[in-house]
Structure formats: structure tokens, C-alpha cells
């Protein structure tokens, strides 16, 4: 029996006892959250996509993508939540002895000191005001949630790069090039920190007064498709992840798209994330224009 087939059988068993399995807390939180919001899970399908395999002596290490598709009924309407999650399985002989799934990968604490960012300089030099086209931004987000636009560089940790592309597709004005610590921009094979780093974009949105600007609001339900949510999973003041709002559910709450662990129409709170902690903090930004 191949190891890939064993993983397939493993996940079939998990899905068969979806509402009482305890092996994957994140998945239990996902399905419990659907019920708690008054929605109904109508169908869940999955696929296994191995992408790296190392064998040594009698041990085998397999890394794979677990793709989930959840058809959810919310009020009178159905929507499809989709996501790719990173699995890591280790076998001794034919026995699976260590297995974990990471629903999120982010830059986290790799940046050990604050970036010297300048987002508000030259206030007297006005940029031409642009109108933010939310429909085009959302259209872009749904077009590229599961792939990568070759016009831009892609990254292993791609969440903020993806969000920036979505905003830019809506017509937001870039500025600050070629200084990477200023403004929000992409071009000529380089980019600002705020274009690609989660923590830098959060600070940009909180302080910019020209070009791309945003207004912070106090709750997720105040957001509309085309807006941004920033996540500080540990609650330590450094933001790890950003998502892009693409629609609202029947309760008026945001559903988001994201990269890194590529997701579409995921519930905004990320309580089903392996990165979630009780100390999580959010920032909610409405894009101006």
C-alpha cells in the first residue's frame, strides 16, 4: 500500500467522523463554527496532492497539500469555501507515526526589528485622487486566489503581496518608489515593504495620508467587499497575516480570500486556523475612495 494511498484512507476516515473527530482541532473548529453561525455544511470534499518526498532507511517523510471544498448554506444562498492546507506526514515502514497540518504559514517573527517605514512624508505634494473600484478588486481576488499572476513576483509567504495586488487591481494609487521604506508600490523588479510584509502593510494602512489610504473601523461587520483585515495571531503587536474581503454571508459577516495557505470565501475570524490563539488581535480597514 503506497503512503499516498494511506493518507487518502486516513482523511476518508477523518471525514467519516467529521463532527466527533479530535485529531485535527482546526477542522473541528471549522465545522463547529459553521453550525454556530446558523449555517449548514451541505458537502465537504477533499484531495491529497503530495509535493515532496524523502526516504531514508525505513522512514519516509511526505509533505502534501490538503485541498478542502465546503459547500455551505447561509440563509437562502449557498457559497463554496475552498482552501489548501499544508500537511506533513512521517512513516516508519508502512506505519504513520507523526502527522500534522498547518493551515497558515506566515512571516511571523522573522523580522526581528521594526522596519524604518515612512508613509506620510511630502504631504504637500498631492497625488491625483483615484476612485477605488471594489468590483474590479474582488474580481481580481477571485481570479487569482488559487494561482499567481505572472506579472508579479510570488513569495513563499504571499498573503500581503496578494492583498496588495487586489487593491491595485481596484485602481488604488501607488507612491514612494524607489525607496522601499516609503509609500506603497511595486515596479521594476522591486517593491515597498508595505507591498509584501504583513506588519508593514498594517502600519501603512494605519498612517498613510495620500495614495492608497484607508479608514480603520471597529468591527468586521462594518467592512465591505474590497476591504482588508489584518491579523496578529499572538496578540504581541506584530501582525502576521492579511486577508481580502470578497463577500458577506447571510449574517452580514465578511468572507475572505487569502494567499500562502490559499483560501477562498473563508470566514474572516480564522478561529479554525492552526495559528489561532485566544490572544489574537484584528485590525479592520475600509479602503478609501
From TrEMBL:
Residues 132-285 form the Putative amidase domain. Pfam families: Amidase_6. This is Putative amidase domain-containing protein. The lineage of its organism: Bacteria, Bacillati, Bacillota, Bacilli, Bacillales.
Amino acid at each position: 500500500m503506497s503512503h499516498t494511498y494511506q493518507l487518502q484512507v486516513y482523511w476518508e476516515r477523518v471525514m467519516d467522523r467529521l463532527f466527533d473527530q479530535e485529531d485535527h482541532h482546526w477542522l473541528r473548529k471549522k465545522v463547529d463554527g459553521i453550525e454556530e453561525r446558523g449555517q449548514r455544511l451541505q458537502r465537504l470534499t477533499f484531495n491529497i496532492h503530495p509535493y515532496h518526498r524523502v526516504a531514508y532507511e525505513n522512514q519516509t517523510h511526505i509533505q502534501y497539500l490538503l485541498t478542502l471544498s465546503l459547500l455551505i448554506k447561509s440563509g437562502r444562498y449557498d457559497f463554496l469555501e475552498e482552501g489548501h492546507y499544508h500537511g506533513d506526514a512521517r512513516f516508519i515502514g508502512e506505519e504513520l507515526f507523526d502527522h500534522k497540518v498547518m493551515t497558515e504559514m506566515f512571516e511571523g517573527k522573522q523580522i526581528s526589528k521594526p522596519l524604518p517605514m515612512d508613509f506620510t512624508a511630502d504631504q504637500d505634494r498631492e497625488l491625483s485622487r483615484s476612485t477605488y473600484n471594489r468590483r474590479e478588486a474582488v474580481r481580481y481576488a477571485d481570479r487569482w486566489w488559487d494561482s499567481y499572476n505572472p506579472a508579479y513576483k510570488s513569495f513563499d509567504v504571499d498573503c500581503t503581496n496578494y492583498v496588495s495586488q487586489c487593491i491595485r487591481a481596484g485602481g488604488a494609487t501607488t507612491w514612494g518608489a524607489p525607496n522601499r521604506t516609503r509609500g506603497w508600490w511595486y515596479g521594476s523588479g522591486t517593491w515597498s515593504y508595505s507591498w509584501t510584509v504583513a506588519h508593514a502593510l498594517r502600519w501603512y494602512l494605519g498612517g498613510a495620508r495620500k495614495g492608497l489610504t484607508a479608514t480603520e473601523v471597529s468591527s468586521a461587520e462594518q467592512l465591505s467587499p474590497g476591504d482588508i483585515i489584518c491579523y496578529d495571531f499572538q496578540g504581541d503587536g506584530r501582525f502576521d497575516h492579511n486577508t481580502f474581503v470578497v463577500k458577506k454571508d447571510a449574517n452580514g459577516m465578511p468572507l475572505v480570500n487569502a494567499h500562502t495557505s490559499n483560501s477562498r470565501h473563508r470566514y474572516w475570524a480564522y478561529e479554525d486556523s492552526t495559528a489561532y490563539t485566544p490572544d489574537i488581535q484584528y485590525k479592520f480597514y475600509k479602503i478609501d475612495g
